[in-house]
Amino acid sequence: MPRPSPAQFLITLAAGVLLVVSAVGFIGQDDETTPSGDSAPGAVAIAGFRFNPEQITVNVGDAVTWTNEDEAVHTVTTTDEGPIDSGDVAGGATYELVFDEAGTFAYICTLHPNMDGTVEVTDQ
Question: How far apart are the first and last CA of the chain?
Fold first, then answer.
């Protein structure tokens, strides 16, 4: 089989690189409509030093589960007298809380206070 010319080789190589870059870009593309972690209604992922979703609505009696997908330890703690107080949640661990009363509960990670979220609990 004859060897390709240098120009043919470069064109083939460039096409291959573009194909790989396109595939990697597509695979790594973030779909903003799909939150990280569980897709259950009461699921919050802790990933990239943020809560996702930042705001969640559940009904009285429902559980919310926070899953720490980061390697760093985080907390889930209400900013007032609310019921949320996870203590330290290690990477890969979860914290679950059943909400027994309606209300809006703001929370932060006490270790990283720029991380914040809100749980709105409705009485159906």
Answer: 74
Residue 34 lies in a domain: no
Tokens (6 digits) for 28? 């790594």
> Tell me: the pLDDT tens digits for 16-72?
444 444 444 434 333 333 334 444 679 999 999 999 999 999 999 999 999 999 999
Q: How many residues does the chain have?
A: 124
Cα dihedral sign, 67-72-73-76: negative
pTM of the model as a whole: 0.68
Q: Which domain holds residue 87?
A: 43-122
DSSP assignment of 42-105, as one string?
TEEEE-SSSEESSEEEEETT-EEEEEE-SSS-B--EESSS-S-B---B-TT-EEEEE--S-EEE
CA-to-CA separations, 79 to 21, 108, 115, in angstroms, rounded: 44, 7, 12
Q: Is residue 35 part of a domain?
A: no
